[in-house]
Amino acid sequence: MQKRVVVTGASGHIGYHVALQLLESGFDTTLLIRKENQNIFDLKNKGAKIHFANLISPDSYESFLENCDALFHIASENTTDTSDEKRVIQNTFELSKIVIDTAIAKNVKTIIYTSSVVVLGRSSDPNILINEKNKTAVLESPYVKGKFLTEEYCDKLIQENK
Q: Which runs of E-coded beta strand occur in 9-162?
């Protein structure tokens, strides 16, 4: 029996390649999308199912998570814009929290959240390498803050749910 997976963020670079690998590996792949672009057209031609969804509104996609084996959540607003922190936080942290909570409520067996290297922060000293053991996150933009908050939320869920 073919495993069913759902992917968010497939219109972007990483999401496209994740979805492509899943399709090439024989998974029944559904993409939750806001809009179509060349990546989506390509994945659709390779067998992906497409569903337009507003990830802030679970009722627009939760039925696709029923009997789903895995969710690959990659979608996020990727921006350097600092003029509207509330919007960016909503489209990074709040969006991810809603999607992950909805997947948990629908008993999705595996949830894979793809974050960003920005959660490691930036080093003020070019001779000091930042890594997961040496985190010094500087929340220099709403995007970085949103990704950092989502990373913390995922860590908390993992600790609470083992």
A: 28-33, 49-52, 70-73, 110-113
Beta strand 110-113 pairing with 49-52? unpaired
Asked if 40 and 8 count as a contact pair (C-beta separation under 8 A), the reply is no
Strand-pairing partners, residue 49, are 30
CB 31 within 8 A of CB 48: yes
Q: What is the pLDDT of residues 73-129, one digit of tens each?
A: 999 988 888 899 999 999 999 999 999 999 999 999 999 999 876 666 666 677 766
CB within 8 Å of 76: residues ≥ 6 apart: 9, 91, 92, 95, 96, 116, 146, 147, 150
What distance in Å separates the CA atoms of residue 100 and residue 125, rounded to the nearest whole number? Answer: 35
Do 157 and 100 meet the contact criterion of CB atoms below 8 Å apart? yes
Residue 152 amino acid letter: E
DSSP string, 116-160: -GGGGB--SSTTS---TTS-B----SHHHHHHHHHHHHHHHHHHH
